[in-house]
Amino acid sequence: MNPRLAKAWKIQKKARDVVAAQALFAILRVLRRLPPQTGLRVADRMARLIGPFTPRHRLALENLRLAYPEKDAAWIEATARANWGQMGRIAAEYVFLDAIFDYDPERPPGEGLVEVEGMERFVALRDDPRPIIFFTGHLGCFELLPICAATFGLDVTALFRPPNNRVIAREVLAARRTRGGHLVPSKAGAAWALAGKLQAGGNVGMLVDQKFAKGEPTTFFGRPCRTNPLLPKLARQFDCDVYPARAVRLPGGRYRLILEPKLDLPRGANGEIDIRASCQALNDVVERWVRDTPEQWMWFHRRWQFS
User: Fold this and answer.
1) What is the pLDDT of residues 53-83, one digit of tens each?
2) Where is it predominantly found (predicted)?
Protein backbone atom coordinates (compact mmCIF):
# COMPACT_ATOMS: atom_id res chain seq x y z
CA MET A 1 0.00 0.00 0.00
CA ASN A 2 1.14 3.54 -0.76
CA PRO A 3 2.71 4.99 2.44
CA ARG A 4 0.50 8.07 2.28
CA LEU A 5 -2.63 5.96 1.84
CA ALA A 6 -1.53 3.70 4.69
CA LYS A 7 -1.02 6.70 6.95
CA ALA A 8 -4.41 8.16 5.97
CA TRP A 9 -6.09 4.80 6.62
CA LYS A 10 -4.54 4.62 10.09
CA ILE A 11 -5.63 8.17 10.89
CA GLN A 12 -9.24 7.61 9.84
CA LYS A 13 -9.37 4.27 11.68
CA LYS A 14 -8.09 5.92 14.85
CA ALA A 15 -10.70 8.65 14.43
CA ARG A 16 -13.47 6.07 13.99
CA ASP A 17 -12.26 4.22 17.08
CA VAL A 18 -12.32 7.40 19.14
CA VAL A 19 -15.84 8.30 18.00
CA ALA A 20 -17.16 4.79 18.66
CA ALA A 21 -15.44 4.65 22.04
CA GLN A 22 -16.79 8.02 23.16
CA ALA A 23 -20.31 7.00 22.16
CA LEU A 24 -20.00 3.79 24.20
CA PHE A 25 -18.52 5.62 27.19
CA ALA A 26 -21.36 8.15 27.10
CA ILE A 27 -23.92 5.34 27.24
CA LEU A 28 -22.07 3.66 30.12
CA ARG A 29 -21.93 6.95 32.04
CA VAL A 30 -25.71 7.20 31.77
CA LEU A 31 -26.16 3.57 32.83
CA ARG A 32 -23.84 4.11 35.81
CA ARG A 33 -26.37 6.57 37.23
CA LEU A 34 -29.06 3.89 37.28
CA PRO A 35 -29.55 1.07 39.78
CA PRO A 36 -27.64 -2.01 38.51
CA GLN A 37 -30.67 -4.09 37.51
CA THR A 38 -32.32 -1.14 35.77
CA GLY A 39 -29.11 -0.32 33.90
CA LEU A 40 -28.73 -3.91 32.75
CA ARG A 41 -32.32 -4.07 31.49
CA VAL A 42 -31.87 -0.82 29.58
CA ALA A 43 -28.64 -2.09 27.99
CA ASP A 44 -30.39 -5.34 27.05
CA ARG A 45 -33.24 -3.53 25.31
CA MET A 46 -30.97 -1.07 23.51
CA ALA A 47 -28.79 -3.86 22.14
CA ARG A 48 -31.82 -5.84 20.94
CA LEU A 49 -33.04 -2.76 19.06
CA ILE A 50 -29.72 -1.68 17.52
CA GLY A 51 -27.88 -4.98 17.02
CA PRO A 52 -30.03 -6.44 14.21
CA PHE A 53 -29.19 -3.44 12.01
CA THR A 54 -25.42 -4.06 12.15
CA PRO A 55 -23.27 -6.28 9.89
CA ARG A 56 -22.49 -8.43 12.93
CA HIS A 57 -26.10 -9.58 12.96
CA ARG A 58 -25.67 -11.20 9.57
CA LEU A 59 -22.56 -12.98 10.87
CA ALA A 60 -24.47 -14.21 13.92
CA LEU A 61 -27.24 -15.59 11.71
CA GLU A 62 -24.68 -17.31 9.50
CA ASN A 63 -22.93 -18.90 12.49
CA LEU A 64 -26.19 -20.06 14.03
CA ARG A 65 -27.21 -21.69 10.74
CA LEU A 66 -23.84 -23.48 10.64
CA ALA A 67 -24.16 -24.70 14.21
CA TYR A 68 -27.86 -25.60 14.05
CA PRO A 69 -28.71 -26.66 10.48
CA GLU A 70 -31.80 -28.44 11.81
CA LYS A 71 -33.36 -25.25 13.22
CA ASP A 72 -35.78 -23.08 11.27
CA ALA A 73 -35.27 -19.43 10.34
CA ALA A 74 -37.55 -18.17 13.13
CA TRP A 75 -35.48 -19.92 15.82
CA ILE A 76 -32.23 -18.65 14.30
CA GLU A 77 -33.48 -15.04 14.22
CA ALA A 78 -34.94 -15.19 17.73
CA THR A 79 -31.73 -16.63 19.15
CA ALA A 80 -29.60 -13.98 17.46
CA ARG A 81 -31.80 -11.19 18.80
CA ALA A 82 -31.74 -12.68 22.30
CA ASN A 83 -27.96 -12.85 22.00
CA TRP A 84 -27.85 -9.11 21.33
CA GLY A 85 -29.53 -8.62 24.69
CA GLN A 86 -26.78 -10.70 26.28
CA MET A 87 -24.13 -8.58 24.58
CA GLY A 88 -25.75 -5.42 25.86
CA ARG A 89 -25.68 -6.83 29.36
CA ILE A 90 -22.00 -7.77 29.04
CA ALA A 91 -21.13 -4.19 28.11
CA ALA A 92 -23.13 -2.78 31.02
CA GLU A 93 -21.81 -5.34 33.50
CA TYR A 94 -18.36 -3.77 33.28
CA VAL A 95 -19.90 -0.87 35.19
CA PHE A 96 -21.63 -3.00 37.82
CA LEU A 97 -19.37 -6.06 38.31
CA ASP A 98 -18.57 -5.56 41.97
CA ALA A 99 -22.14 -4.53 42.77
CA ILE A 100 -23.54 -7.60 41.02
CA PHE A 101 -21.39 -10.12 42.86
CA ASP A 102 -23.23 -10.53 46.15
CA TYR A 103 -22.52 -14.21 46.82
CA ASP A 104 -22.70 -15.30 50.45
CA PRO A 105 -22.13 -19.02 51.17
CA GLU A 106 -24.24 -18.70 54.33
CA ARG A 107 -27.27 -17.41 52.45
CA PRO A 108 -30.14 -19.83 51.66
CA PRO A 109 -30.22 -21.08 48.03
CA GLY A 110 -32.20 -18.91 45.65
CA GLU A 111 -31.57 -15.64 47.47
CA GLY A 112 -29.39 -12.82 46.15
CA LEU A 113 -28.14 -12.32 42.61
CA VAL A 114 -25.38 -14.94 42.51
CA GLU A 115 -25.40 -18.62 43.37
CA VAL A 116 -22.44 -20.99 43.14
CA GLU A 117 -22.48 -24.63 42.10
CA GLY A 118 -19.32 -26.50 43.04
CA MET A 119 -18.51 -24.47 46.15
CA GLU A 120 -16.82 -27.50 47.71
CA ARG A 121 -14.38 -27.61 44.77
CA PHE A 122 -13.43 -23.97 45.24
CA VAL A 123 -12.74 -24.67 48.92
CA ALA A 124 -10.66 -27.77 48.16
CA LEU A 125 -8.59 -25.97 45.51
CA ARG A 126 -7.89 -23.10 47.88
CA ASP A 127 -5.91 -25.49 50.06
CA ASP A 128 -4.13 -27.20 47.15
CA PRO A 129 -0.56 -25.87 46.78
CA ARG A 130 -0.28 -26.94 43.13
CA PRO A 131 -0.97 -24.47 40.30
CA ILE A 132 -4.38 -24.76 38.59
CA ILE A 133 -5.67 -23.79 35.16
CA PHE A 134 -9.31 -22.74 34.88
CA PHE A 135 -10.98 -22.33 31.51
CA THR A 136 -14.28 -20.94 30.31
CA GLY A 137 -15.96 -19.54 27.22
CA HIS A 138 -17.76 -16.35 26.24
CA LEU A 139 -20.99 -17.39 27.93
CA GLY A 140 -23.15 -15.46 30.37
CA CYS A 141 -21.33 -13.03 32.64
CA PHE A 142 -17.99 -14.83 32.47
CA GLU A 143 -16.35 -11.82 34.13
CA LEU A 144 -17.83 -12.94 37.47
CA LEU A 145 -15.77 -16.14 37.54
CA PRO A 146 -12.41 -14.69 38.69
CA ILE A 147 -14.24 -12.54 41.25
CA CYS A 148 -15.87 -15.70 42.58
CA ALA A 149 -12.53 -17.50 42.74
CA ALA A 150 -11.04 -14.60 44.69
CA THR A 151 -13.92 -14.85 47.18
CA PHE A 152 -12.69 -18.35 48.01
CA GLY A 153 -9.08 -17.21 48.35
CA LEU A 154 -8.02 -18.24 44.86
CA ASP A 155 -6.04 -15.57 43.04
CA VAL A 156 -6.40 -16.08 39.28
CA THR A 157 -4.40 -14.40 36.52
CA ALA A 158 -6.68 -14.34 33.49
CA LEU A 159 -5.72 -14.22 29.82
CA PHE A 160 -8.12 -12.12 27.74
CA ARG A 161 -8.34 -10.80 24.21
CA PRO A 162 -8.67 -6.99 24.17
CA PRO A 163 -11.28 -5.40 21.87
CA ASN A 164 -10.02 -4.36 18.44
CA ASN A 165 -10.83 -0.74 19.29
CA ARG A 166 -7.75 0.32 21.24
CA VAL A 167 -9.52 3.16 23.03
CA ILE A 168 -12.21 0.80 24.30
CA ALA A 169 -9.54 -1.82 25.11
CA ARG A 170 -7.78 0.57 27.50
CA GLU A 171 -11.06 1.35 29.26
CA VAL A 172 -12.04 -2.32 29.47
CA LEU A 173 -8.70 -3.22 31.00
CA ALA A 174 -9.15 -0.53 33.64
CA ALA A 175 -12.74 -1.58 34.36
CA ARG A 176 -11.68 -5.21 34.77
CA ARG A 177 -9.25 -4.37 37.56
CA THR A 178 -11.68 -5.58 40.19
CA ARG A 179 -11.09 -7.85 43.15
CA GLY A 180 -11.02 -10.71 40.65
CA GLY A 181 -7.26 -10.91 40.16
CA HIS A 182 -4.83 -9.90 37.44
CA LEU A 183 -5.12 -9.70 33.66
CA VAL A 184 -2.79 -10.60 30.81
CA PRO A 185 -3.77 -9.29 27.34
CA SER A 186 -3.41 -11.95 24.63
CA LYS A 187 -0.46 -10.60 22.69
CA ALA A 188 3.23 -11.37 22.30
CA GLY A 189 4.65 -12.43 25.65
CA ALA A 190 1.33 -13.57 27.13
CA ALA A 191 2.37 -17.23 27.18
CA TRP A 192 5.54 -16.36 29.07
CA ALA A 193 3.55 -14.31 31.59
CA LEU A 194 1.15 -17.17 32.29
CA ALA A 195 4.01 -19.67 32.48
CA GLY A 196 5.68 -17.44 35.05
CA LYS A 197 2.52 -17.43 37.19
CA LEU A 198 2.26 -21.22 37.07
CA GLN A 199 5.98 -21.61 37.78
CA ALA A 200 5.46 -19.53 40.93
CA GLY A 201 2.56 -21.75 42.00
CA GLY A 202 -0.18 -19.34 40.92
CA ASN A 203 -3.42 -20.04 39.09
CA VAL A 204 -4.43 -18.91 35.61
CA GLY A 205 -7.71 -18.61 33.76
CA MET A 206 -8.29 -18.72 30.01
CA LEU A 207 -11.08 -18.25 27.47
CA VAL A 208 -10.72 -21.08 24.95
CA ASP A 209 -13.49 -20.53 22.41
CA GLN A 210 -12.03 -18.02 19.97
CA LYS A 211 -10.48 -18.43 16.53
CA PHE A 212 -6.72 -18.93 16.57
CA ALA A 213 -5.31 -18.90 13.04
CA LYS A 214 -2.21 -20.96 13.89
CA GLY A 215 -3.98 -23.29 16.29
CA GLU A 216 -4.57 -27.03 16.24
CA PRO A 217 -7.06 -28.40 13.69
CA THR A 218 -10.21 -29.36 15.60
CA THR A 219 -13.98 -29.29 15.22
CA PHE A 220 -16.72 -27.28 16.91
CA PHE A 221 -20.35 -28.23 16.30
CA GLY A 222 -18.94 -30.77 13.84
CA ARG A 223 -17.26 -28.12 11.68
CA PRO A 224 -13.51 -27.56 11.25
CA CYS A 225 -11.81 -24.79 13.17
CA ARG A 226 -8.48 -24.07 14.80
CA THR A 227 -7.99 -23.95 18.56
CA ASN A 228 -5.30 -22.27 20.64
CA PRO A 229 -3.00 -24.99 22.07
CA LEU A 230 -1.68 -22.81 24.91
CA LEU A 231 -3.76 -24.37 27.69
CA PRO A 232 -2.77 -28.01 27.09
CA LYS A 233 0.84 -26.98 26.51
CA LEU A 234 0.94 -25.21 29.87
CA ALA A 235 -0.86 -28.09 31.57
CA ARG A 236 1.71 -30.52 30.15
CA GLN A 237 4.68 -28.36 31.08
CA PHE A 238 3.63 -27.68 34.66
CA ASP A 239 1.58 -30.84 35.34
CA CYS A 240 -1.47 -28.71 36.22
CA ASP A 241 -4.98 -29.84 36.96
CA VAL A 242 -7.53 -28.27 34.61
CA TYR A 243 -11.01 -27.19 35.70
CA PRO A 244 -13.93 -26.04 33.52
CA ALA A 245 -15.94 -23.11 34.88
CA ARG A 246 -18.89 -21.25 33.40
CA ALA A 247 -21.41 -18.53 34.17
CA VAL A 248 -25.09 -18.98 33.36
CA ARG A 249 -27.64 -16.17 33.33
CA LEU A 250 -30.84 -17.01 35.18
CA PRO A 251 -34.28 -15.35 35.04
CA GLY A 252 -34.75 -12.24 37.15
CA GLY A 253 -31.25 -10.86 36.55
CA ARG A 254 -29.60 -13.64 38.56
CA TYR A 255 -26.48 -15.69 37.84
CA ARG A 256 -25.26 -19.23 38.47
CA LEU A 257 -21.49 -19.78 38.56
CA ILE A 258 -20.46 -23.40 38.06
CA LEU A 259 -17.09 -25.00 38.79
CA GLU A 260 -17.19 -28.44 37.21
CA PRO A 261 -15.08 -31.48 38.17
CA LYS A 262 -11.50 -31.66 36.96
CA LEU A 263 -11.13 -32.32 33.23
CA ASP A 264 -8.66 -35.13 32.56
CA LEU A 265 -6.94 -34.14 29.33
CA PRO A 266 -6.24 -36.95 26.83
CA ARG A 267 -2.75 -38.43 26.91
CA GLY A 268 -0.65 -40.16 24.29
CA ALA A 269 1.11 -43.52 24.44
CA ASN A 270 4.07 -41.89 26.18
CA GLY A 271 1.83 -40.64 29.01
CA GLU A 272 2.16 -36.98 28.06
CA ILE A 273 -0.84 -34.75 27.39
CA ASP A 274 -1.90 -35.00 23.74
CA ILE A 275 -2.11 -31.38 22.57
CA ARG A 276 -4.46 -31.80 19.61
CA ALA A 277 -6.80 -34.23 21.39
CA SER A 278 -6.88 -31.90 24.40
CA CYS A 279 -7.83 -28.93 22.21
CA GLN A 280 -10.73 -31.01 20.93
CA ALA A 281 -11.71 -31.92 24.49
CA LEU A 282 -11.88 -28.21 25.37
CA ASN A 283 -14.09 -27.56 22.33
CA ASP A 284 -16.38 -30.41 23.33
CA VAL A 285 -16.90 -28.92 26.79
CA VAL A 286 -17.67 -25.46 25.39
CA GLU A 287 -20.02 -26.93 22.79
CA ARG A 288 -21.95 -28.70 25.57
CA TRP A 289 -22.29 -25.39 27.38
CA VAL A 290 -23.43 -23.56 24.25
CA ARG A 291 -26.05 -26.19 23.50
CA ASP A 292 -27.40 -25.71 27.03
CA THR A 293 -27.89 -21.95 26.56
CA PRO A 294 -27.30 -21.03 22.89
CA GLU A 295 -28.53 -17.45 23.32
CA GLN A 296 -25.78 -16.81 25.88
CA TRP A 297 -22.75 -17.53 23.69
CA MET A 298 -20.99 -14.85 21.64
CA TRP A 299 -22.01 -15.64 18.03
CA PHE A 300 -20.46 -12.54 16.47
CA HIS A 301 -17.02 -13.83 15.53
CA ARG A 302 -15.82 -16.22 12.81
CA ARG A 303 -15.09 -19.29 14.90
CA TRP A 304 -15.15 -21.57 11.87
CA GLN A 305 -12.87 -19.58 9.60
CA PHE A 306 -10.27 -22.22 8.76
CA SER A 307 -7.01 -21.08 7.22
Assistant:
1) 999 999 999 999 999 999 999 999 999 999 9
2) membrane
**pLDDT for residue 14 is more than 70:** no
Asked if residue 115 is part of any domain, the answer here is yes
In this structure, the answer to whether residues 198 and 237 fall within a common structural domain is: yes
Residues 6+ apart with CB under 8 A from 39: 31, 32, 92, 95, 96
Q: Which amino acid is present at 155?
A: D
Using the 3D structure, point to which of 79, 97, 115 is the last residue of a domain: 97
Q: Are residues 190 and 57 in the same domain?
A: no
pLDDT, residue 192, reads 83
> Over 80: is that where the pLDDT of 164 sits?
no
DSSP codes, 130-166:
S-EEEEE-SBSSTTHHHHHHHHTT--EEEEE---SSH
Closest CA to 300 of 90, 144, 74: 90
The number of residues making up the chain comes to 307
Range of the domain at 51: 3-97
Residue 249 CA to residue 192 CA, distance in Å, equals 33
pLDDT tens-digit profile of 172-217? Answer: 555 555 455 565 555 556 788 888 889 988 899 999 998 888 899 9
Main-chain dihedrals φ then ψ at residue 117, nearest 5 degrees? -110, 120
Contact of 209 with 184, CB cutoff 8 Å: no
Q: 15 with 122, same domain? A: no
Q: How far is CA 278 from CA 206, 264, 282, in A?
A: 14, 9, 6
Among candidate residues 178, 179, 285, the one with its CA nearest the CA of residue 231: 285
